[in-house]
């Protein structure tokens, strides 16, 4: 089998510390030079699969049966260090895999460890930097690079060692859609150069825009699907696998059109079927028109004349911002546009240099927040960071939520009642006595929202609430947020998650170069190519399809 | 990299010197300065390190705070020496010249002379350490440590710490704010006891997440073959130039002079009162 890059032959793996195998009887073959997408919800065994490929996990870490073959050679008993000569790996955490102090040093890392002479190091770094367009970044450190640039450095750092198989573990997780597309283009270029690509990624919609040769789906440690993307999207079991359906496929399915009648379903530029346009057009006309300028409650938070300077850099210039009760506002903008700074200023995490922030208290009286201590500020504006490790401090799940109330001298009975009710609503009740560190990433995120929301602020600000989560846990969190909003809370989510913006947010505020543009509806945003580009977003795939079929503007009536 | 005590990119011949040679010269001069209690030598060494700091083009602003702190510490140190051992100078130099006052705390020129020596030790070591730390890129320092015999894993851990310090600082700041917002007493008004409990918890949480981070980083490093071979090379390793040899000569010469003075003075102390 000369043309198989990677083969799993009846592989079963059980970690030493676990009773149940994480992977069960896995069989598949990936041919040399192909591009494979690996899908599956968290806990389905994807990480273990990747670790068996790049030898982070070997027979030393547990009970391994079956064979892993790379380029036709059985890897049992081989030195794990040598595996990296065959397989290069890109991780999802762009920051932690950057080990050098500068781009140049990070790229050279593999060769340094091989003890290559200095002249060869410098030449190889120069060559690979040219190939990836990184030459000008060589002397810079990771703190001034964007997520997309860091992923490109990671690619260069792996490929400088000439690994013919490239494994990517959620490479898009910390990138905005535009940077994601650009990284996918680079990956495509490597694919054309003959490198075998194996990619784990939740964001199917974005990956499919560049096409894949093969898709593997894992569920509970078993391989439940091995085939083409076209076959995957029409699988009757698709929804059972808890995968994120591409937006255009969702639209077609919702219209009642049979997916089996489509040709080239995985290719958004080609997908078509008999009378597809007619069916979609009919469907769009039956959709209720979005009510223009929906009437929310009164103002929950109002900020005027906010400006912020860091060193010599003006980050925010004269920003006016307001959010109403029961409104869900998405705050968007490209990296460095100042959206996180604005969020932190509103939450009182950064000192206001200029401007005024006011919030409504329970009696709808406006309270000035400017000089309040953070503990009091937090009773009006809650802030949830995107890193749950920054939010939780290792108490039990119950205590993490109760802490904020306890420190405000709420009586124990009230605390018990409130916390248990909240835990039930967020589906965390069964874990109430666990230490918070033992939860999964998605559960930790929900818990950190709870710990802040329990103080019943008027506004909840969340930084990238869905980043790094699979479809099912992201939806779980968003559903919980919606229930909070329905009770009268205003939500501000800093995000570049297009599904969140399109399906959950009421309005969008975008920051461009430190200035806030008009607050608009998500629909208006997705119709403006300029604004999408300025905020590092891309057109959602359902809009792409409607535009190609000449149906744009028909959907959901006009405001 | 404009962090506290971080490397500062400048164009000076001291920056151009090789990490290894700078490290060796730094060690030689420090040993010489610690060894000698000869006023003449220490004045010379202080002038030398002041020149080194001047030529390294480090901005005053970036070292200001540290220098003030050192001055406060040095003054405190000198006062305490006087409080606890006002006769130490007299004992050292076997003579007593009273300048002011009388009795136990009488001020003697021998005591002043001794305390000046202590002050000079601060005056040579602080500029020298600053010039060394701020002109040596951490990777070059790691390469230098490795060259003088420190295991490359230890040397790399050192430069990695500097690499991740800003990240951990950021995370700590946010965690702190989050806990303050929840109501944990960390602000100015809180009592010391409450602050202590809350800070301990905070540090534990930070330690947890740092450990987790270390795990990912070490995996990422292993995936790129760190630790595979007994030796590794360094992208930022530098070859030796004339300046390095000259620096090394200076270092050796000054240490030799310090040793020579010990034998000429008949001990580590030079006694002008004899």
Strand residue percentage of chain A: 15-25%
Distance between the termini of chain B: 52 Å
Count of beta strands of chain B = 2
Secondary-structure-based class of chain A equals: alpha/beta
How is the biggest beta sheet of chain B arranged? 2 strands, antiparallel
Tell me the radius of gyration of chain A.
Answer: 25 Å
Q: So, CATH architecture of the largest domain in chain A?
A: 3-Layer(aba) Sandwich
The largest inter-chain interface, given as chain pair and residues per side, is: A-B, 64 and 52 residues
Question: How are the elements arranged and paired?
Answer:
The complex is a heterodimer of chains A (559) and B (274).
Chain A lengths: L3 E12 L7 E9 L3 E5 L6 H9 L7 E9 L2 E2 L5 H7 E4 L12 H11 L4 H14 L15 H13 L5 E5 L7 H16 L3 E5 L3 H5 L5 E6 L2 E6 L1 H5 L13 H8 L21 H11 L12 E12 L2 E12 L3 E5 L6 H8 L7 E7 L5 E3 L5 H4 L3 E4 L3 H4 L5 H10 L5 H14 L15 H13 L5 E5 L7 H16 L3 E5 L3 H6 L3 E6 L2 E2 L5 H6 L1 H6 L6 H8 L11
Parallel strand pairs in A: 3-8, 3-9, 6-7, 7-8, 13-18, 13-19, 16-17, 17-18
Antiparallel strand pairs in A: 1-2, 1-4, 4-5, 9-10, 11-12, 11-14, 14-15, 19-20
Chain B lengths: L12 H4 L2 H17 L3 H17 L4 H25 L3 H6 L4 E3 L6 E2 H27 L2 H10 L4 H31 L9 H31 L19 H24 L9
Helix pairs in contact in B: 2-6, 2-7, 2-10, 3-6, 4-6, 7-8, 8-9
């Amino acid at each position: 089998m000369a043309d198989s890059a990677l083969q799993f032959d009846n592989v079963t793996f059980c970690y030493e510390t676990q009773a149940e195998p994480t992977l069960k009887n896995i069989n598949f073959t990936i041919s040399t030079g192909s591009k494979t997408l690996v899908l599956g919800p968290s806990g389905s065994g994807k990480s273990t699969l990747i670790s068996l490929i790049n030898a982070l996990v070997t027979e030393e870490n547990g009970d391994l049966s079956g064979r892993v073959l790379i380029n036709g050679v059985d890897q049992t008993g081989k030195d794990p260090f040598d595996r990296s000569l065959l397989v290069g790996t890109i991780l999802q955490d762009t920051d932690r895999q950057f080990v050098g102090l500068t781009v140049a040093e990070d790229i050279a890392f593999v060769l340094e460890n091989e003890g290559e002479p200095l002249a060869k190091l410098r030449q190889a770094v120069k060559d690979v930097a040219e190939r990836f367009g990184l030459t000008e970044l060589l002397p810079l450190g990771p703190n001034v690079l964007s997520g997309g640039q860091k992923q490109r450095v990671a690619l260069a750092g792996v490929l400088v060692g000439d690994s013919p198989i490239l494994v990517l573990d959620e490479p898009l997780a910390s990138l905005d859609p535009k940077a994601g597309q650009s990284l996918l283009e680079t990956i495509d270029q490597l694919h054309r150069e003959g490198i075998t690509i194996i990619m784990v990624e939740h964001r199917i919609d974005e990956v499919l825009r560049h096409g894949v040769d093969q898709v593997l789906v894992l569920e509970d440690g078993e391989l439940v699907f091995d085939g083409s993307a076209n076959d995957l999207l029409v699988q009757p079991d698709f929804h059972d696998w808890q995968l994120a359906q591409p937006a255009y496929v969702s639209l077609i399915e919702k219209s009642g059109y049979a997916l089996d009648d489509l040709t080239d379903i995985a290719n958004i530029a080609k997908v078509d079927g008999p009378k597809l346009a007619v069916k979609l057009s009919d469907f769009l006309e039956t959709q209720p028109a979005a009510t223009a300028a929906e009437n929310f409650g009164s103002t929950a938070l109002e900020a005027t004349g906010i400006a912020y300077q860091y060193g010599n850099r003006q980050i925010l210039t004269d920003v006016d911002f307001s959010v109403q009760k029961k409104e869900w506002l998405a705050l968007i903008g490209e990296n460095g546009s100042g959206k996180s700074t604005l969020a932190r200023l509103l939450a009182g995490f950064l000192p206001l240099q200029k401007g005024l922030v006011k919030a409504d208290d329970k009696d709808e009286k406006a309270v000035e927040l400017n000089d309040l201590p953070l503990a009091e500020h937090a009773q009006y504006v809650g802030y949830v960071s995107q890193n749950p490790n920054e939010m939780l401090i290792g108490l039990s799940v119950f205590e993490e939520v109760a802490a904020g109330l306890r420190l405000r001298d709420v009586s124990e009975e009230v605390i018990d009642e409130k916390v248990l009710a909240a835990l039930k609503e967020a589906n965390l009740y069964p874990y109430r006595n666990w230490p918070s560190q033992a939860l999964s990433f998605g559960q930790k995120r929900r818990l950190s929202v709870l710990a802040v929301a329990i103080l019943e602020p008027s506004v909840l600000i969340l930084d990238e609430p869905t980043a790094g989560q699979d479809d099912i846990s992201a939806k779980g969190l968003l559903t919980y947020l919606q229930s909070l909003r329905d009770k009268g809370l205003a939500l501000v989510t800093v995000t570049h998650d297009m599904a969140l913006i399109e399906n959950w947010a009421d309005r969008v505020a975008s920051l461009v170069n430190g200035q806030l543009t008009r607050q608009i509806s998500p629909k208006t945003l997705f119709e403006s190519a300029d604004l999408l580009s300025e905020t590092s977003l891309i057109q959602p795939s359902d809009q792409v399809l409607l535009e190609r079929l000449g149906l744009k503007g028909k959907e959901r009536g006009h405001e | 990299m404009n962090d506290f005590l971080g490397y500062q990119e400048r164009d000076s011949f001291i920056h151009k010197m090789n990490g290894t040679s700078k490290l060796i010269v730094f060690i030689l001069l420090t040993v010489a300065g610690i060894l000698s209690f000869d006023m003449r030598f220490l004045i010379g060494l202080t002038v030398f390190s002041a020149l080194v700091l001047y030529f390294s083009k480090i901005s005053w602003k970036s070292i200001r705070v540290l220098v003030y702190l050192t001055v406060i510490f040095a003054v405190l140190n000198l006062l305490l020496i006087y409080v606890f051992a006002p006769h130490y100078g007299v004992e050292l130099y076997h003579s007593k010249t009273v300048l002011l006052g009388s009795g136990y705390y009488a001020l003697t020129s021998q005591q002043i002379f001794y305390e000046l020596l202590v002050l000079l030790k601060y005056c040579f070591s602080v500029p020298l350490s600053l010039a060394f730390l701020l002109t040596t890129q951490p990777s070059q320092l790691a390469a230098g440590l490795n060259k003088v015999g420190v295991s490359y894993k230890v040397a790399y851990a050192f430069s990695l710490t500097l690499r991740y310090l800003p990240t951990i600082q950021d995370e700590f700041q946010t965690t702190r704010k989050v806990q303050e917002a929840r109501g944990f007493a960390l602000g100015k008004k809180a009592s010391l006891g409450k602050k202590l409990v809350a800070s301990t918890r905070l540090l534990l949480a930070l330690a947890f997440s740092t450990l987790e981070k270390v795990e990912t980083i070490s995996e990422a490093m292993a995936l790129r073959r760190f630790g595979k071979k007994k030796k590794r090379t360094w992208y930022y390793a530098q070859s030796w130039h004339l300046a390095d040899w000259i620096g090394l000569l200076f270092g050796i010469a000054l240490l030799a002079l310090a040793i020579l003075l010990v034998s000429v003075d008949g001990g580590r102390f030079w006694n002008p009162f004899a």
